[in-house]
């Protein structure tokens, strides 16, 4: 296809298939070095109004475009991303900090997701038919969507919103995190040569931009992935215009991406009979984990992504001494470096009410806890206001499934963790979210529901 982007230039927001510069610009930093990266645009209210107007104009035609044509354009977009994947993966390491191998995985998954969404046609359903009439449930697109994307997986989670929105006939405005705006802006640049004007746009900015989007009367739905605290603010803001909203909120592999994945293992409950062996083997494995710059070979744990999160994780590590937690593996903050590096820590059977058990650190620190009674272990595992992912590990598959069916989380796995797929719904229970994304269920959340009664007898 020949779509090539320069990852060192950032001319502006992507509005109506054009780069639009802004008077004010910002910069994020490379979390491995603490050095500023390239300039990025800072969108204004006028930019928002302009992008929304184009998106609303475009949806009139895009919503009536045949599914096959929308699918072909989505596939062409995936092909263009693949053409640029090596440069884009390096850019992702620079802005996010994750190891290059994990950046490659994120782009691989993104291509799989986009190509899968291109096959997922939400068809009308027949609810009932007799000699006199037929009743359908149809799924028309609401119109203009906005995807607010977090900094931990900015590419997969951004394109995980784009695919469902566009394939169901909506137009989409992406707001990347101000900590990781670069790849999403370049994806918008790639999309300029593929999608019709107004169908896919990208606006970069800070928290005030989020408020402009969530309160805008001509945006029909917000899909937000991020923290519980911010999710509550998004929901409150959307309520002003009765805007629909999907929230995928953090809840708690344990050290992957420096612990900065919402569905990572937050705490381990290990039966007392195998606790010591499990702890010791986990410690031996953790000793092999290398922490460093994402471009170094063999790195598993990169830097914490930004200074705000770095301070939060450091505060959690400071609790080890304050609360006299026993450490199976000490870990710690690498203060001598310019980047935001923290090495993994394992806390050995801390009190159930300690912060490391009740809070999500979103960093490479994890507690191990003993249990002896199955019902008590399930109760303790469910004793949380969050519930995104959980897993049960057991040689007895029937027992493992029985336990799994009692865990209060949106995704529960037996003998695995953090399995996701584009055709499987993803969402949380309790404070971990509202609604779900991906799969048929997720795609329908990008649609309205319409009951269509057709009477066969002419008037």
TrEMBL record:
Matching SUPFAM superfamilies: ALDH-like
Catalytic activity: an aldehyde + NAD(+) + H2O = a carboxylate + NADH + 2 H(+)
Keyword Nucleotide-binding: no
EC supergroup of this enzyme: oxidoreductase
Protein's recorded name: aldehyde dehydrogenase (NAD(+))
InterPro entries registered for this protein in UniProt: Ald_DH/histidinol_DH, Ald_DH_C, Ald_DH_N, Aldehyde_DH_dom, LUC3-like
TM helices/strands, residue ranges: none
Family label: Belongs to the aldehyde dehydrogenase family.
EC number(s) on file: 1.2.1.3
Keyword check for Oxidoreductase: yes
Span of domain Aldehyde dehydrogenase: 25-249, 254-451
Molecular function GO labels: aldehyde dehydrogenase (NAD+) activity
Organism field: Glonium stellatum
Keywords for this protein: Oxidoreductase
Domain of life per record: Eukaryota
Family annotation (Gene3D superfamilies): Aldehyde Dehydrogenase, Chain A, domain 1, Aldehyde Dehydrogenase, Chain A, domain 2
């Amino acid at each position: 296809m020949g779509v090539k982007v320069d990852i060192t230039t950032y001319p502006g927001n992507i509005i109506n298939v054009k780069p639009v510069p802004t008077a004010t610009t910002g910069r994020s930093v490379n979390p491995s070095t603490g050095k500023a990266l390239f300039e990025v645009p800072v969108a204004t209210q006028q930019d928002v109004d302009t992008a929304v107007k184009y998106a609303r104009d475009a949806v009139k035609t895009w919503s009536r475009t045949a599914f096959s044509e929308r699918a072909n354009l989505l596939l062409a977009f995936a092909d263009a991303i693949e053409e640029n994947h090596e440069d884009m993966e390096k850019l992702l390491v620079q802005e996010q900090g994750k190891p290059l191998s994990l950046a490659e995985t994120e782009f691989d998954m993104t291509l799989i997701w986009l190509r899968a969404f291109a096959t997922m046609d939400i068809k009308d359903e027949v609810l009932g038919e007799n000699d006199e009439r037929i009743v359908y449930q149809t799924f028309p697109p609401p119109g203009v969507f906005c995807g607010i994307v977090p900094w931990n997986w900015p590419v997969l989670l951004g394109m995980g919103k784009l695919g469902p929105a566009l394939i169901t006939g909506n137009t989409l405005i992406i707001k990347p995190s101000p900590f990781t705006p670069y790849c999403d802006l370049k994806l918008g640049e790639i999309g300029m040569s593929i999608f019709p004007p107004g169908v896919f746009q990208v606006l970069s900015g800070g928290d005030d931009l989020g408020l402009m989007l969530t309160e805008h009367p001509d945006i029909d739905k917000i899909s937000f992935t991020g923290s519980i605290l911010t999710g509550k603010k998004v929901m409150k803001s959307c309520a002003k215009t009765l805007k629909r909203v999907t929230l995928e909120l953090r809840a708690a592999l344990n050290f992957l991406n420096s612990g900065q994945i919402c569905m990572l293992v937050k705490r381990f409950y290990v039966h007392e009979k195998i606790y010591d062996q499990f702890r010791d083997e986990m410690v031996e494995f953790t000793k092999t984990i290398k922490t460093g710059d994402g471009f170094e070979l063999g790195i598993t744990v990169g830097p914490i992504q930004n200074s705000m999160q770095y301070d939060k994780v450091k505060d959690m590590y400071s609790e080890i001494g304050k609360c006299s937690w026993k450490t199976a593996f000490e870990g710690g903050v690498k203060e001598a470096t310019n980047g935001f590096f923290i090495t993994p820590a394992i806390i050995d059977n801390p009190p159930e009410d300690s912060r490391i058990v009740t809070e999500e650190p979103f960093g490479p620190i994890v507690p191990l806890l003993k249990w002896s009674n199955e019902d008590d272990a399930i109760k303790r595992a469910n004793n949380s206001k969050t519930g995104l992912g959980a897993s049960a590990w057991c040689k007895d598959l029937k027992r493992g499934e029985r336990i799994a069916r009692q865990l209060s989380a949106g995704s529960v796995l037996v003998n695995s963790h953090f399995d996701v797929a584009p055709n499987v719904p993803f969402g949380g229970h309790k404070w971990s979210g509202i609604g779900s994304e991906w799969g048929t269920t997720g795609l329908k959340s990008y649609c309205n529901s319409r009951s269509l009664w057709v009477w066969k007898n002419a008037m």
